[in-house]
Amino acid sequence: MDDEFEFADKVPPSFDRMGKVIKDAEAKGFNPGLIVLLVVVGLLLVFLVGNYVLYLYAQKNLPQRKKKPISKKKMKRERLKQGVSAPGE
Questions:
Q1: Is DNA-binding one of the keywords (predicted)?
Q2: Residue 2: is its pLDDT beyond 60?
Q3: Is 59 strand, coil or helix?
Q4: Could you give the percent of the chain with pLDDT greater than 90?
């Protein structure tokens, strides 16, 4: 039985190296992928908010669009559909 627990207090070399890697990873700072993701999401958010602000500004300050004038031919056709005779006929 003494043979089984002979190496109980020793750490295998592969685990010892992994411990050093984990300690070094914490000291490096932000992940570059995280920085790219934050920049892209930030730009997208600025774009969407900017478009919404411009839309609100345009709704308040720009004049409404004028409707196209209806041609006499179309007016005559609509009156005939409704059963009202056109004037002068």
A1: yes
A2: no
A3: helix
A4: 35
